[in-house]
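Problem 12. The chain below contains 219 residues. Write out its predicted structure in C-alpha cell notation.
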Amino acid sequence: MPASKAVSPRGRDLRLDLFRGLANWAIFLDHIPNNSIAWLTTRNYGFSDAADIFVFISGYTAAFVYARRISAQGMLAGTALLMRRVWQLYVAHVLLFVFYAAAIGYVAQRYGHSHLLDEFNVAGLIEQPVATLTQGLMLKFKPLNLDVLPLYIVLMAGFPPLLIVMMRWPNAALAASISVYLSARLFGWNFSAYPSGDWYFNPFTWQLLFTLGAWAALG
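Solution.
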C-alpha cells in the first residue's frame, strides 16, 4: 500500500508539539554552564541529545502535515504550502540573527566586555559588516549556538521531492537518504561556513534522521 494511504486524517497532533517543545527546552538547558537541571536531559543517558529528538520529530511532523496537504490539494499546492513554511522559518532566523547580534553588541559595549564579541562569534559584524551580514543571509555565517534553525531550514527546503517520492515508494526514499548519508561520510560532503570551516550540523548527514522521522510518520 502506498504510504499516502496511511496518512492519518486527524488534525494537529499536540503530542508532537509537546515533545518538540521539550527538545527545544533541553537544547537551551544544555547550553547553560554549571546547570544542574541539564542533568535531566537525554544527552547524559544515551547516544543522542535533544537536537536529535528535535530533528526526528521535525521530519515526522513535516510528513504528517504536508503529506495530507499533497493528498488533498495536489502536488503543486502542497509543495507551495511547504515552501511558504520554509520562508517563514527563514524570516524568523533573520530576525533572530539580527536581534542576537544587536543584543551581544549592546552588552559588550555597555559593560565593556569586548571579549563577548569573539566568544559569541559576532566580531565579524564589527570588522566586516557588509560581508558578514551577506553571508549570514545565505546561512553561512552563524553566531554561537544558532546552528539548529539553519539546519531545519535546509532540510525543509529539500523535503518536497523526497516527500513526493516517499508517499509512493517509502522504502526507496529511505534507501536514497541512507545513500546520501554514507556518501557524505565517505567523501566529506558538507556546506561551507563563513569565514572558515564547515557547518557544525552537516545537512547531508542529519537529513537521515529527518527522513527517518518522515518515514515513520507515513506508516
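Discussion. Residues 3-217 form one domain. Students who got a different answer should revisit the alignment rule from Section 12.3.
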